[in-house]
Amino acid sequence: MPLSPYKLEYSDPAGMKLAYVIATPEVRSPLMPGVRGVFADNLQFLKDLGYEAVEVAMRDPHDPEAANVAADFERVGLPAAMIGSAPSELQDGVMLCHPDEAVREAGAGRMRALIDMAARLGALGVNIGRFRGTRTPGDLWEASTGWMQDALKAGGDYAAEKGVKIYIEPYNRYETNFINTVGQGADYVREMDHPGIALMIDTCWMNSEDASLPGAVFGAGQLIEYVHIADSNRCYPGAGHIHFGDIVRALRHVGYKGYLTVQIDQKPAFKFVAKRSLDYMKCLL
Prior knowledge:
Blueprint: E1 17-23, H1 39-49, E2 53-57, H2 69-76, E3 80-84, H3 86-92, H4 101-121, E4 125-128, H5 141-162, E5 165-168, H6 182-192, E6 197-202, H7 203-209, H8 213-220, E7 224-229, H9 244-253, E8 259-262, H10 270-282
Parallel strand pairs: 1-2, 1-8, 2-3, 3-4, 4-5, 5-6, 6-7, 7-8
């Protein structure tokens, strides 16, 4: 296999590690871009394939179906990089910012449970994408902005107490009106200056919201602490039009040495896309 031209640009290893999103047994939403099925078997397959960690897309750590997750990690020996919060919104309609106070309270409780699980598994923390909800236009705009700010501040406080962080994911404009671009996310993290709040990026959403993907990386710089990898169509890297070599070069330039976590639709099949993603990204590192 010939050397990648991207590798020839550097004499030192990238220092970035490849991970993959895996859903826990209680996650059933077909909209979740991560592999579902027998959790321990999927975990073992990803380890054997060569992934260095996984992101755990988890709906509810208190669900009996999720009771064996920690034991499966211990048995397989593959680290948990991150806890994903999207299934709470996708499956239960639970989120942090919503006109219904009961939904907000349920979202706050779910966030604390996910943070507890992150600390238990030794993960970096919990990513907050669609789970944060959206602000309500009109008469409730100021109030809902306050709900969002208060929920994220409370989550950051609780995460810091547990020795982890919540990772704010700039998300597409059709799902939320609070932090869509990487620049907006970086501004928010700078303004908060909070030990429990960090910035992550997702290449698929960047393709929708940011004028330049490498430019967005350069703008956020060392504030970037976690990265989701998906092509422009939420498929495996190489299946769309994103130039991942440019993104990897930009990440190298700003000194990023964290996880590149593949969060994609499992099409045409999990084992195929997991291997294709690993092979593709390894050529760039």
